[in-house]
Amino acid sequence: MGKSVVVTGATSGIGLATAIGLAESGYDVIGTARTAESAGLLVEAAEAAGVKVRYVLCDVADATSTVRAFTEIATMTGGGPWAVVNNAGFAQPGAIEDVSDEAARAQLEVNLIAPARIARLVLPAMRQRRDGRIINISSVSGRVTLPFVGWYAASKRGLEGVTDALRIEVAKFGVRVVLIQPGSYGTPIWQRGLQLLPDRTGSAYKQSYDLAGEVMNRASELSPPTPVVKAVRKALAAPRPKDRYLVGFDAHSAAAVEALLPTRVSDYAKGAAVGLRQPPPVLAAILARLTRRRTSR
Ligand SMILES: NC(=O)c1ccc[n+]([C@@H]2O[C@H](COP(=O)([O-])OP(=O)(O)OC[C@H]3O[C@@H](n4cnc5c(N)ncnc54)[C@H](OP(=O)(O)O)[C@@H]3O)[C@@H](O)[C@H]2O)c1
């Protein structure tokens, strides 16, 4: 059997695709699921792909559940996994003014605190073996912040900070720590996020939420996360993996534009994109003409 790899949140989207993809590459994959029902989806998908994936139940937001799961994983792997892919996550949308403390804490708990907690659980065995990998699934949002996903961006920016520190701290023990920064892919994350939009009635940002709702609804039509799986595979297989893998054309272009543009200009463009600002009349006229020409074709 190949090296053992735990994939958290292996029941949907990137985690599910990664669990199956790594099993196809010969890894001994243990996926985490929050319920027996969702674990069933993982097992079925693995069977359909002709591979075997084991699972443990784990809610990464719950410390007791996580300790229990990783104790079970230590038994299943004879001392602890060779690698962990910290993938479990969600996106809390909403203007900073509208998101409650409770919702903000939940976002940070799952996307930022949980990967650090899991690192604490697996590192002693990795250090002892002087071998191991921790792959943290961040996002281009860890580099480029858009309005109305401020807490999601905060969780991913935080994850980047924790990952950078961890990488340096554990390098001398033979443990490699890698960040994956995907652009947008067609997974259920944004449709699920729609359920978490703050109450729109009376919100000063209602119009932008209506626009955001349309965009989030269309997000599942984006391409499947195959390039993210490929990046994780590289991060696990390379003798000397890169520190960061930025994945997707949109992620590369957004990061480049963010680095080049003055903040005032990029703020303007981001605000216009979500209906917070009107483009100047000349630009609006050009855009209107282009739209008319495209629709009349
Ligand atoms: N899709 C994108 O465009 C994109 C882009 C950049 C980064 N990412 C990152 O990629 C990761 C996966 O996202 P996705 O798009 O694949 O989303 P997804 O399809 O919604 O899948 C999220 C996975 O995380 C699990 N999860 C959520 N909260 C959890 C908790 N408290 N404990 C355990 N598992 C939990 C979910 O389990 P349940 O099924 O039980 O809810 C599910 O398996 C996230 O970290 C996300 O930030 C995604």
Question: Can you describe this structure in just a few lines?
Answer:
With 297 residues, the protein is of the alpha/beta class. It has helices spanning 13-24, 36-49, 63-76, 101-129, 150-170, 189-194, 206-218, 226-237, 249-260, 263-273, 281-296, and strands spanning 4-7, 28-33, 54-57, 83-86, 132-137, 175-182, 244-247. The longest helix has 29 residues, at 101-129.
Fold and architecture overview:
By secondary structure, the chain is an alpha/beta fold. It has one domain: Rossmann fold. It is 54% helix and 12% strand. It has helices spanning 13-24, 36-49, 63-76, 101-129, 150-170, 189-194, 206-218, 226-237, 249-260, 263-273, 281-296; strands spanning 4-7, 28-33, 54-57, 83-86, 132-137, 175-182, 244-247. The chain has a seven-stranded parallel beta sheet with strand order 3-2-1-4-5-6-7, with helices on both faces. Helix 1 crosses helix 2 and helix 4 (101-129) runs parallel beside helix 5. The longest helix is centred in the middle third of the chain and has 29 residues, at 101-129. It is globular, with a radius of gyration of 20 Å. The chain starts with a strand and ends with a helix. The mean pLDDT is 94. The structure holds NADP nicotinamide-adenine-dinucleotide phosphate (NAP).
Detail the poorly predicted runs. Answer: none
CATH topology: Rossmann fold
Query: Percent range for helical residues?
Result: 40-55%
**What distance separates the N and C termini?**
57 Å
* Global structural class: alpha/beta
Q: Tell me the series of helices and strands, N- to C-terminal.
A: EHEHEHEHEHEHHHEHHH
Question: How many beta-strand runs?
Answer: 7
Look at the structure and name the CATH superfamily: NAD(P)-binding Rossmann-like Domain
Total of DSSP H or I helical runs spanning 4+ residues: 11
CATH architecture: 3-Layer(aba) Sandwich
The count of domains is 1
Please outline the major beta sheet: 7 strands, parallel
Percentage of residues in strands: 5-15%
